[in-house]
Write a structure and sequence with these properties.
Radius of gyration: 21 Å
CATH superfamily: Transmembrane di-heme cytochromes, Chain C
EC number: 1.7.5.1
Helix content: 55-70%
CATH architecture: Up-down Bundle
GO molecular function: electron transfer activity; heme binding; metal ion binding; nitrate reductase (quinone) activity
Order of helices and strands: HHHHHHHHH
Shape: globular
GO cellular component, one term: plasma membrane
Protein name: nitrate reductase (quinone)
CATH class: Mainly Alpha
Subunit structure: Dimer of heterotrimers each composed of an alpha, a beta and a gamma chain. Alpha and beta are catalytic chains; gamma chains are involved in binding the enzyme complex to the cytoplasmic membrane.
CATH topology: Fumarate Reductase Cytochrome B subunit
Number of helices: 9
Length: 236
């Protein structure tokens, strides 16, 4: 089971996430949206959304660069494994608290308001609860990260993540002896990638792609005129 979850399941999750997103964009482009419920109830949305999105974005980028950037680069700039693990635990813990507070506010709003609950799909609610659970697992793992910082355990996760992307044989062996809390955190994270194409999370890709679309395509911008400049005669 360990070999399956950490040697095979990553490719299943990432494969479905990538190909499913492409298929959804090609097949159902009009469903590619965040389905905002702001018009139904604005209360709690602004604070909860800001805390949640900022916290999750910080954590995602931290994981992305922390796991996929080779450790030799960190060593070259003077950041050793112990310092990197402590920094990730403290900074990630702060961002995690903000994100989970915002997520709980958004979940309470979605579940308690009859109109929002009636217009929410199964995946709208499920993915939010999955993200909150993932954030909770991450926060639970913070004390373990701080306690084991001197052993540089973060190197194991870096070797595992980088090994997945270079199709390294027996990649699961890198994290075979890490605590269970880390393994649960990884499996749930991969599961979120697995269901990604079927949820509103796809709008995240639009956020990353928008700057490239704006600068490198002719249709990536809009021309907006003031009301005074608009022609008075509709025939014009």
């Amino acid at each position: 089971m360990h070999n399956f979850f950490f040697g095979i399941y990553p490719y299943i999750a990432l494969g479905v996430g990538i190909m499913g997103s492409i298929a959804r964009y090609e097949r159902d482009p009009f469903t590619w949206k965040s389905s905002s419920s702001q018009l139904l109830r604005r209360k709690q949305l602004v604070i909860g959304s800001v805390l949640f999105h900022v916290g999750v974005l910080f954590i995602f980028l931290g994981h992305l660069f922390g796991l996929l950037v080779p450790h030799q680069i960190y060593e070259a700039i003077g950041i050793h494994a112990e310092a990197k693990q402590l920094l990730a635990a403290v900074a990630g813990g702060i961002a995690g608290v903000a994100a989970i507070a915002g997520g709980i506010m958004l979940a309470q709003r979605r579940l308690s308001d009859p109109r929002i609950r009636a217009t929410s799909s199964f995946w709208d609610t499920t993915i939010l609860l999955m993200l909150i659970a993932q954030l909770a697992l991450g926060l639970i793992s913070v004390p373990y990260s701080i306690a084991t910082a001197e052993h540089g355990e973060v190197i194991k996760f870096m070797e595992w993540a980088q090994g997945v992307f270079i199709f390294q044989p027996d990649v699961a062996e890198h994290i075979i002896d890490v605590p269970l809390i880390y393994k649960l955190h990884i499996v749930l994270g991969l599961t979120i990638f697995l269901v990604f194409p079927f949820t509103r999370l796809v709008h995240i890709l639009s956020g990353f792609a928008a700057p490239f679309r704006y600068f490198f395509t002719r249709t990536g911008y809009q021309i907006v005129r003031s009301r005074r400049q608009a022609p008075r005669n509709p025939a014009e």
